[in-house]
Structure formats: structure tokens, C-alpha cells
Write a sequence for this structure.
């Protein structure tokens, strides 16, 4: 994968070369205009981030702007990796271990010398069904539901095997594409350095997932019981 790198005193850009068209360059130069004025769809807009879907070169892409919350936040960011770089790195990590997620396309950091301002991350748009929506239905065939739940449980196992914690694992952050789970919202994801921390992280991931399911009113108790049974079966088999 060839990356176009542009470094200026007030801006840093990384973009995969195959996507670095004139339309992509125009987006990167006028990114706030496109986010605020020309979104095809708004996925999120709050003080922490703005996430929209845009059309570039006849393809839909997701653009995520990490908003800043004042000078104290900017100064903290000076010592840490930007959220755009985290998303790029984390997506690449998941793809390397075989977990489907969005493809990183480009990132941009606004800078004032060494100080980071806002950052922007551009990735592929995943067209599918949110797992939360899927498991809130009651008309899905039972065998198909169990198969998809098993795939999600195995995805959590794969994360644990590679000492990775998503840290916000829930059904709303899993998109089903042709029956396969894709993991999104990777801002908080972390790969641990020590096995005992990874083991503790994996246990917390599962607890967080089950708790998030149980705290969601549209998820039936039968679904919660299904996931609990599948986790126990996988533990027993050692797979």
C-alpha cells in the first residue's frame, strides 16, 4: 500500500495513493465545508466528534472529525496520538488479524507547529445492518441468529487472542454484512503489552458486552441467554 504524505507547518496528510484523486484533494483542502454543508448522511454530531457520509469519485466514504474542547484538550493532545491516527492504526491492526472493519483511506491533522488541533479520518463506508437492529427483531430464523451470534463471540475471542480490547464493545458497534460481523468505532481500542492485563481486558470486554446487551430494552432476554450459552460453549471447547 503506497501512501501519499504531505507535511506542512499547519497540516499533516496521509492518503492512500489510489484514492488521491483531484476530488479527494479538494475534499482534504475544504473538508469542513463538505462536512458541514454537503453530507449525504450525518451519522453523529456532538462536541466530541462529527461523523458524516460523503460521496467522492462516485464512492461513499465516511469522514470523522475529532472536535476539540478548548486549550486544555489541545495541550493534552500534544502528548498523545491523534484520534485520526488511532483509527488508521487500529483499523490496519484488525484487518491484519482477519477481523473485518472499514478500510482506512486518508487522515489529516490540523497543526500549529507541533501542537495538534483537530484531526480528520476518512474511511470506507460499510453498508450493512447494525447488529443491534438485527438482534432486536423477533422474526429471524433461530439457526441463523445463533450462527451470527457465534461469529460475534468468536470475533471477541480473536481480539482476546491478540491481546486487543475494543473498550466499547456493543451491538451498535458491529455491522452485519452478508451475515458477517464488521467491527467499527475504534477510537478507544488498545493492544496490551502484558498477558495478565490482556487477560483482565478480555474478561472485562465480555462483561461489558453482556452488560450492554442487558441494559438495552429492545434486546430480548432470549438473545442475552443465547450469547451466554455460546460463550460457555466456546470456553468449554477451548476454541
Amino acid at each position: 500500500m503506497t501512501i501519499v504524505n504531505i507535511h506542512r507547518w499547519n497540516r499533516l496528510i496521509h492518503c492512500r495513493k489510489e484514492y488521491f484523486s483531484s476530488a479527494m484533494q479538494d475534499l482534504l483542502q475544504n473538508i469542513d465545508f463538505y462536512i458541514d454543508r454537503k453530507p449525504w448522511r450525518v451519522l453523529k454530531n456532538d462536541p466530541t466528534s462529527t461523523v458524516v457520509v460523503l460521496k467522492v469519485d462516485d464512492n461513499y466514504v465516511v469522514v470523522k472529525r475529532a472536535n476539540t474542547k478548548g486549550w486544555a484538550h489541545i495541550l493534552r493532545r500534544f502528548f498523545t496520538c491523534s484520534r485520526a491516527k488511532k483509527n488508521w492504526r487500529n483499523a490496519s491492526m484488525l484487518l491484519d488479524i482477519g477481523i473485518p472493519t472499514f478500510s482506512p483511506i486518508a487522515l489529516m491533522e490540523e497543526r500549529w507547529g507541533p501542537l495538534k488541533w483537530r484531526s480528520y479520518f476518512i474511511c470506507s463506508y460499510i453498508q450493512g445492518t447494525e447488529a443491534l437492529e438485527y438482534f432486536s427483531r423477533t422474526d429471524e430464523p433461530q439457526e441463523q441468529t445463533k450462527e451470527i451470534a457465534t461469529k460475534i463471540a468468536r470475533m471477541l475471542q480473536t481480539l482476546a487472542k491478540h491481546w486487543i480490547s475494543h473498550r466499547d464493545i456493543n451491538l451498535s458497534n458491529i455491522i452485519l454484512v452478508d451475515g458477517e460481523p464488521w467491527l467499527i468505532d475504534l477510537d478507544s481500542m488498545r493492544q496490551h503489552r502484558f498477558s495478565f492485563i490482556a487477560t483482565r481486558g478480555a474478561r472485562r470486554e465480555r462483561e461489558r458486552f453482556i452488560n450492554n446487551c442487558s441494559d438495552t430494552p429492545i434486546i430480548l432476554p432470549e438473545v442475552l441467554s443465547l450469547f451466554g450459552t455460546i460463550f460457555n460453549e466456546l470456553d468449554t471447547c477451548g476454541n
